[in-house]
Design brief:
This protein is mainly alpha-helical. The protein has one domain. Helices cover about 70% and strands about 0% of the residues. It is built from 19 helices and no strands. It has helices spanning about 1-35, 50-60, 65-70, 80-95, 100-120, 130-140, 140-150, 155-170, 175-195, 200-220, 225-240, 240-250, 285, 290-295, 310-335, 340-345, 345-365, 375-395, 400-420. The longest helix has about 35 residues, at about 1-35. The protein is globular and about 55 Å long. About 45% of the residues are buried.
């Protein structure tokens, strides 16, 4: 029995090493064959054009600066310059080559998966071998090939959220002092996150808030935890969360820490946009579309044909994103079917809450942008993998198979109606 367990574990480790190697090769091939050769398509200006090219161009220029200037000097061409600074440091330390930046993106993506692995695998109620399934899927997630095969900021966003979730679980049973130490680390993550993408702030803060709330309910002396909760609110408002959310909901411009989701739920977009628009010109009716827009990011439709556009810019990413959407939709069904088992565990509650908040943040976007959903992946993918594994172990495909076919049919009809209407 012991020998067979050892052999099974060895086989699983070999499979994961193979998945990691294949993931790295696919990312490198995507970067070297699709992204880097078409670098001539980049915008002549750092303020417009395809983001991945803009980031790489700006980082190449900034990498010549002294290290202190890279970290501290303002970069006016970007509202959120955090990723550009990280990429510039990579270019300064290694070499100013976009492929090198892509490989560093792959390392950040893999590191985020390793941070989340114990959360998925170590839960007592976790299904058998769910950790291996999660890490293999994480490494080979189709759209992650695009995120790590270009100099895009999605891997860094995912890494910051994954670190916040891991901290939230690691300090779930901590004392007040250790929770404050955790809060100091969360503060650093939040400052880093708001320099990369404004929408990361609530997702980074939420796990720590849930830790404080849990300890408050369980503690006989609630005053220290109440004080901690108040400090958290002050901290979030100091970073701009309160002002930005209020500005978004009232239709006004966001503050200096403005989010990536535009000027609020009622923002208008160009008719020439390749992104699908769902909503109404009436702000109150449009507010009802917030959950629809949030969930629609899971499907990630394009509003225009990718034919005639740059392969590395639209066509290849759209294929990878649609493939990922099939996985996300299957996981959504599994989460619904296994909802009671999911929320029964502490880990499941945390992942479900972070996923719900990410969907809410995505819903406040005036457009459906498939790249924005990267902020959903760190919580949603481990939640979906655990639920899918529970469902398959308990019912095989008897329940999820017919449900998936029905949902795919309805989604096809709905998308065709939106395109033809």
């Amino acid at each position: 029995m012991e020998a067979s367990t050892t052999n099974r574990n060895s086989g699983r480790n070999v499979a994961l090493l193979f998945a990691a190697a294949l993931s790295a090769v696919l990312s490198y091939a995507y970067a070297s064959l699709l992204f880097a050769p078409s670098i001539w398509l980049r915008a002549s200006s750092l303020t417009s054009g395809y983001d991945a090219y803009r980031y790489s161009d700006a980082a190449m220029l900034i990498s010549r600066w002294p290290t202190a200037d890279i970290l501290l000097d303002p970069i006016w061409q970007f509202e959120f310059s955090g990723y550009v600074r990280v990429l510039a440091l990579v270019y300064a330390l290694l070499t100013p080559d976009p492929v090198v930046g892509c490989l560093v993106n792959w390392v950040m993506w893999a590191a985020a998966g390793l941070l989340l692995l114990p959360i998925v695998a170590d839960e007592p109620s976790a299904p058998r071998s769910v950790g291996g399934w999660f890490l293999g899927l994480w490494l080979l997630l189709p759209e992650a090939i695009d995120w790590t095969g270009t100099t895009s900021k999605e891997p860094l966003c995912v890494l910051l959220i994954a670190a916040a979730i891991r901290l939230g679980m690691a300090f779930a049973g901590a004392t007040v002092l250790r929770t404050w130490l955790c809060g100091a680390v969360v503060a650093l993550l939040a400052v880093a996150g708001t320099s990369v993408r404004g929408a990361l702030l609530p997702l980074i803060v939420l796990p720590w808030l849930m830790v404080v709330e849990t300890r408050f309910r369980a503690s006989t002396s609630r005053m220290p935890w109440a004080f901690t909760a108040c400090a958290l609110v002050v901290f979030a408002n100091f970073l701009g969360l309160g002002g930005d959310l209020f500005g978004s909901l009232t239709g006004h411009d966001s503050g200096s820490m403005g989010y990536d989701f535009g000027k609020g739920p009622w923002a208008s977009t160009s008719d020439r946009s390749v992104l699908l628009q769902i909503g109404s010109s009436n702000r109150w009716l449009d507010a009802l579309a917030i959950p629809v827009r949030g969930l629609a990011h899971i499907v990630a439709p394009l509003n225009a044909s990718p034919a005639g556009m740059a392969v590395a810019q639209v066509s290849a990413p759209s294929l990878l994103q649609w493939t990922s959407a099939l996985l996300y939709c299957s996981m959504a069904l599994a989460v619904g079917l296994q909802w009671r088992a999911v929320v029964a565990s502490k880990t499941g509650k945390l992942l479900a809450c972070v996923s719900a908040l990410a969907i809410l943040v995505l819903g406040t976007t005036g457009i459906i942008h498939e790249r924005y959903r990267s902020i959903l992946v760190p919580a949603y993918l481990p939640l979906g993998v655990r639920s899918l594994r529970l469902e398959l172990d308990g019912f095989s495909v008897r329940r999820i198979g017919p449900s998936a076919m029905m949902i795919c049919g309805l989604a096809t009809v709905a998308y065709a109606w939106m395109k033809l209407a």
